[in-house]
Amino acid sequence: MNGQLTGQPIFILPEGSLRNTGRDAQSRNILAAKTVAESVRTTLGPKGMDKMLVDSIGDVTITNDGATILNEMEIEHPAAKMIVEVAKTQENEVGDGTTTAVILAGELLKKAEELISQNIHPTVVVRGYRMAKIKSIEILNSLSKTAGINDDDILEKIAITAMTGKGSESAKESLAKMAVEAAKAVARTENKKTIINKDDIQIEKKQGGSIDDTELIRGIVIDKEVCHPNMSKKVKDAKIALLDVALEIKGPETNTEIRITSPDQLKSFVDQEHAMLKDMVEKIAASGCNVVLCQKGIDDIAQHYLAKKKITSARRVKKSDIEKLAKATGANIVSNLDDLTPADLGKAGLVEEMKIAGDDMIFVRDCKDPKAVSILIRGGTEHVADEVKRAMEDAVLGIASTLEYGKFVYGGGAIEIELARHLRKYAETIGGREQLAINAFSEAVEIVPRTLAESTGHDPIDILVNLRSAHDKGQGNIGVDVFKGTTGDMEAMNVIEPLKIKTQAINSATEATEMILRIDDVITAKSGGRMPPMPPGGGMPGGGDMDY
């Protein structure tokens, strides 16, 4: 980039920098983002295809979970990274609907590009999109139905919808019941809203057994073993002490030297250490506990004394597990042994060590009113267990999202067709060029039913025409029946989704689209003599494919 001044070139950017401006910059960014969206589009819905992802060290992931796919792909293009952010936001906020959010962003950009090519300025498109987004949220709220913490039937259907097509088909009914039970156990009410903290539901996976062996533990599973062979591996009516203090003799914090000149002195020194450890164990035993779970270390001698007192213990338990145990058992986490009292102890019906898939694990079961629970996922292979875990996470988060808003909508593309219909009516009330952008937005929203229709293997145009016709006649629950390749009543088929999936997808997809459309200049600095891969001739590296 240089200018002319009295015949001398003025260099503003360092040599090797690359600059794309105006329409060129926009078309490259849009193409990059569209390519990412296209890469996950075929995974949408129960008939969606899976992707096999092989990383640099050869680890294989097989999934149709949008967030997982985009996370594993090593995407370098800056605009494409913004689309990955859409998926991450959707995953963190709702847990499901990542593919929907990403393909919606891709379609919004595609429609925007068509408008820009007709000489409609990007800021006009952005303004129209923003109006459409606000109206969409309003329409979705008016079309949604309500659900509460006691609507088990609806919550189970939401969990089943979230799991459908996720590799856990065979046991989705029992898994859905588990997800609802877990969510209800940890739910709390704040300001008349039901809040479920997803961290209170611990989802552990262990290869081995089958999906049917998956179980809900009304308590917590710890990936640790009992620390001394003489301790009981099974404790009924457990009184549990949770310690955040090491049962070891710490070295002095200042530089200290101890000189021992005779065997007697050494013996008295060792005896003193033993006495200190014994004193620690006496304080623990005085509280009346029979299980100790310690976040820090337990000295071998302390283990011996604990075993003599018939106190089962485990050491170096993760901080996050200790916090969940406190919620599940009602125990207080104690960081000073002098403060340990019977009131600090938690209770569980059973604490037992079991060998699962070759690993020893401690199960804290049958807690009275646990505010944290565990789901132990089993699967015949590691890949199956991984996929069932992802499905269970989606189910739990789907239930949490439904209860947070207290609303749900019908899936299968039904809500998108209805939303598009309302947006087209709204566009007619708006004058000027923004009307074109709102219409483009309504067409983009239909990417969800169109993709579902394509996944059936039947003619997507026929299905879409039938859908629009049904919705124009007031049949708002009609969506794509992917199994029969026709249209169907989503209410009768129990295909329901949290309202938050749709509102969050529209919010994040529209905001990412707006950001990409407002960029008209891409300046890429040189990096160590090697330019980052930029799309040659408008597009992705390699003539349109992602560089991953």
Structure description:
This protein has 548 residues and is an alpha+beta fold. It folds into three domains: 17-146 and 410-520, Orthogonal Bundle (GROEL, domain 1), CATH 1.10.560.10; 148-216 and 370-405, TCP-1-like chaperonin intermediate domain (GROEL, domain 2, 2-Layer Sandwich); 220-369, 3-Layer(bba) Sandwich (GroEL). Helices cover 46% and strands 19% of the residues. It is built from 17 helices and 23 strands. The strands form eight sheets. Strands 11, 12, 13, 14, 15, 16 and 17 form a seven-stranded mixed β-sheet that branches. A three-stranded antiparallel β-sheet has the order 6-19-22. The protein has a three-stranded mixed β-sheet with strand order 9-18-10. A hairpin with a 2-residue loop joins strand 7 and strand 8. Helix 3 runs antiparallel to helix 4 and helix 4 (98-117) packs parallel to helix 16. The radius of gyration is 30 Å and the shape is elongated. The relative contact order is 0.19.
Class per helix and strand makeup:
alpha+beta
Helix amount? 40-55%
Name the shape in a single word. elongated
- What CATH calls the topology of the largest domain is GROEL, domain 1
From the 3D coordinates, which CATH architecture of the largest domain would you assign?
A: Orthogonal Bundle
Task: Write a concise synopsis of the structure shown.
This protein is an alpha+beta fold.
